[in-house]
Amino acid sequence: DSSDDIEDVSLFDADDDVSRRSKKSKIRHPVASFFHLFFRVSAIVVYLLCELLTSSFIACMVTIILLLSCDFWAVKNVTGRLMVGLRWWNQVDDDGRSHWVFEARKVSAQGSKTSSEAESRIFWLGLITCPMIWVIFAFSALFSFKVKWLAVVVMGVVLQGANLYGYIRCKVGSRKNLTSMATNYLGKQFLRQVRLPGGWKPC
């Protein structure tokens, strides 16, 4: 009887671990995850296939800018909040001064998070990869002397780079915190290098 009880407990724990893993890997916001990648990937595809689809530069430029604008709004206001619990915005106080606010959702009392690991991977992969692609497009347009495409490419770098910068600030913290962390790290490394193996010795 005692061995049966032990087997029951281990099986229950295994099922609990499997359910926890499935919750972590489950995409809880499939619509937000889809549109997080849809607008930015669509803008890149239209840019690559624009000359094959139509000969009108104005139509291509307007389509790409619209897709980039929709992507900027969706990532800044919807997908970042739902998928990773981060948001950033600009607010003006009563004195007319502009302030940038970077926030991260607090973990609940039970320690549970509303975002899953799968959604976090999708969010950061799309957020980091696409601006890098637009930077490559910028260098390509510059070196191939496609001056008319520079405005479109720069718009892609600026809009998607702004979201990347904002969410990195939300994730890591304010610049003051970054400076203090770097100072503390360098100080510890310096003390380790100066400290002798046998401890401090008087001169």
Q: Which terms summarize this structure?
A:
transmembrane helix, mainly alpha, single chain, 73% helix, membrane, disordered C terminus, 203 residues, disordered N terminus, 6 helices, globular, Golgi apparatus membrane protein TVP23 homolog, 7% strand, transmembrane, TVP23-like
Structure notes:
The protein is globular. Strand 1 and strand 2 form a beta hairpin. It has one domain. Helices cover 73% and strands 7% of the residues. It has six helices and two strands, in the order αααββααα. The chain has 203 residues and is mainly alpha-helical. It has a two-stranded antiparallel ribbon. Its main location: membrane. Keywords: Membrane, Transmembrane, Transmembrane helix. InterPro entries: TVP23-like. It is a multi-pass membrane protein. Belongs to the TVP23 family.
